[in-house]
C-alpha cells in the first residue's frame, strides 16, 4: 500500500512514459534514448531518463555526467541533472556503484527489487516525457519495469532495430512481448541504417538496409524513421557531447529530430 | 543473493546461507523446516550429472561480452565453423541466449526442430561433425517471445547441458547473452564440475562497449573463469569504393588494445567491419567459406588458431600437473 502511494507521487507530475525496447543488444537503444532526450529538450520539453540496464548502464557516459552521488530528499532519490536548468534528469545504477568496473552479478529477484525502487522512489518532479532505457531481451528487467509502471501509466514503447534479419528477428519477439503485456507500440526505429563514406560519399549498407521498415509493415506498426551509421554520432556518444548542439546541420540529427517530433505528436494525440 | 526464491518472505537470508531456516525472518515461512534441515545447502545434483555427461567433451569455450550486439553470436558461429573445418574434429555450438537466440539464423537452421531420442534431445546438425542446440529450435514460430524470469532460464540451460545427447566432442562452444546475470552464473555453476578451457571476450572499439566488457572481465575473475583472450570486432571499415578506412565506432580510449594492456590480457585480433559478414549471417552461411578473400576472414582464422593453440597447450599443462 505504501509502495503504491509512492509511485503515484513520484510519477504524478510525469506526463508521458515511453519505453525504449529491443530484443537485440547493441542496436542503439541507449544511443537513441539519449538522442531522443536531447532532441526533446531541444524542443523545449522537460525530459527524464530511467536507465534500467543494470548489468551494462551506458547512459551516464553518453550524457557525460560523471559519477555523482545520488542524494535523498523528502520525496525520494533526487535524479542527476545534466544542466543547471534541470531540463534533463537521469537515474541509473551507474551512480550507485563505487567502482565503475564492478560487475553487477545479480540474478533476477535482486534486479527486480532495484527496479521497483527506481520506479517508486525517484523524485522526478515535473516532466513532459520520461524515457525508460532497457537491456536487451524479454526477461526480469522488462517484466519488473512494466509491473511497477502499470500502477502509473505507460504510453507505449519505441522499438529499436538494425536492418539485419538477425536483429529484426529478435525485435519480432519483442513485439510479441508488447502484445502479451499490453504495451502499445509507438513505432519502430531503424538504426545503423547505411554508412556514407566521409571520403567518397559512397553509401555502404554495412548492416543491410530496410529491415526496420519491412518489419513495421509486416507487423502493422508505425515506422518512425531510419538513423544512419555516423562516426560523428558515435564520437559524440563517447565524449558525452550533445549531438544536437555540435552537429545540428547533419542528416543524422535531422533524422533524430524528425523522429522525436513524430513521437511527440503521437504522445500528445493519445 | 542467488538463492533467494522470488516468493520468499522479506529479508530471506537465502536458501544456501548459514542462516537458512534460522533467522527471524524465517519464522512462519512454509519452507523453514526444509531450510533448517540443511537440505537446501547441498549443491544441485544436476551439477554432478552434467559433469558426468560432459566428461566426453575435450574442450569447452565460452563466448562472452558485457555488451550486446558486438558480435558474440557471429563469432561463436564462425569459431564453430572454423573448428569443424577439420573433418576429424567433432564440434558443437550451444546457444544459451534464451530471450534472443540468433544462432539458428546465423547457422542457416531457422525452422528446424529438436528431436527426442533414447539418450536425450538430439541437437540439429549443420554438418556431420557440427551440432547446434538453441532454444530457437523449441519455438513454434519466429514471433514467439520467451518471456521468462531467471529460474526458468536456468532450468532450460540445465536441460541443454544435461539432457542433450552431445556425444563425444572435441569442442563445445557456448554462445551467451549480454550481461552478468542468471544465464552467466548458471552456465558457470553448471559447468563447475567439469573443466572449462576458458572464455573468449568480444568487444567493439568504443568506450561505451569497453566499459561493459570490463565488468564482464571482472565477472570472469570473480567466478575464476580463465580468459583465453579478447577479440575486437567491428574494428574500422574499409570503403569498398575508395578503400579508405573509417572508424565507425571510434576507439576513443585506445580500444581493446589499451584495455588488454591495462588488464594484462591477450588481444587475439581485430576484425574489421565488412558488409558481407552481416549478409552471410542473415543468409545463414559461413562467411569464411563465402568470402575467403575478405581481410576479416584471414583475421578470424588467425584468432581461431590462437584459440586452438591455447586449448591444446592447456591440456598438456594439465597432464603435467596430474
From TrEMBL, chain A:
SUPFAM superfamilies noted in UniProt: P-loop containing nucleoside triphosphate hydrolases
InterPro entries in the record: Mrp-like_CS, Mrp/NBP35_ATP-bd, NUBP2/Cfd1_eukaryotes, P-loop_NTPase, YlxH/NBP35
Primary localisation category: cytoplasm
Cellular localization per UniProt: Cytoplasm, Cytoskeleton, Cilium axoneme; Cytoplasm, Cytoskeleton, Microtubule organizing center, Centrosome, Centriole
Co-factor: note: Binds 4 [4Fe-4S] clusters per heterotetramer. Contains two stable clusters in the N-termini of NUBP1 and two labile, bridging clusters between subunits of the NUBP1-NUBP2 heterotetramer.
Record-level GO BP terms: iron-sulfur cluster assembly
PROSITE patterns tied to this protein: MRP (PS01215)
Any GO CC annotation of this UniProt entry: cytosol
Known cofactor(s): [4Fe-4S] cluster
Keywords for this protein: 4Fe-4S, ATP-binding, Cytoplasm, Iron, Iron-sulfur, Metal-binding, Nucleotide-binding
Ranges in a coiled coil: none
GO MF entry, a single one: metal ion binding
Binding residues for ATP: 23-30
Superkingdom of origin: Eukaryota
Positions that bind [4Fe-4S] cluster: 197, 200
Record note on quaternary structure: Heterotetramer of 2 NUBP1 and 2 NUBP2 chains. Interacts with KIFC1. Interacts with NUBP1.
Functional summary from the UniProt entry: Component of the cytosolic iron-sulfur (Fe/S) protein assembly (CIA) machinery. Required for maturation of extramitochondrial Fe-S proteins. The NUBP1-NUBP2 heterotetramer forms a Fe-S scaffold complex, mediating the de novo assembly of an Fe-S cluster and its transfer to target apoproteins. Negatively regulates cilium formation and structure.
Family, per entry: Belongs to the Mrp/NBP35 ATP-binding proteins family. NUBP2/CFD1 subfamily.
PANTHER family: CYTOSOLIC FE-S CLUSTER ASSEMBLY FACTOR NUBP2, NUCLEOTIDE-BINDING PROTEIN NBP35 YEAST -RELATED
Name of this protein: Cytosolic Fe-S cluster assembly factor NUBP2
Organism for this UniProt entry: Gouania willdenowi
TrEMBL record, chain B:
GO molecular function: 4 iron, 4 sulfur cluster binding; ATP binding; ATP-dependent FeS chaperone activity; metal ion binding
Binding locations of [4Fe-4S] cluster 2: 239, 242
InterPro entries with a match to the protein in the record: Mrp-like_CS, Mrp/NBP35_ATP-bd, NUBP1/Nbp35, P-loop_NTPase, YlxH/NBP35
Gene Ontology cellular component list: cytosol; nucleus
Key words of the record: 4Fe-4S, ATP-binding, Cytoplasm, Iron, Iron-sulfur, Metal-binding, Nucleotide-binding
Binding, [4Fe-4S] cluster 1: 12, 26, 29, 35
Gene Ontology BP terms: iron-sulfur cluster assembly
Subunit organization: Heterotetramer of 2 NUBP1 and 2 NUBP2 chains.
Family of this protein: Belongs to the Mrp/NBP35 ATP-binding proteins family. NUBP1/NBP35 subfamily.
Name of this chain's protein: Cytosolic Fe-S cluster assembly factor NUBP1 homolog
Native source species: Gouania willdenowi (Blunt-snouted clingfish)
Gene coding for it: nubp1
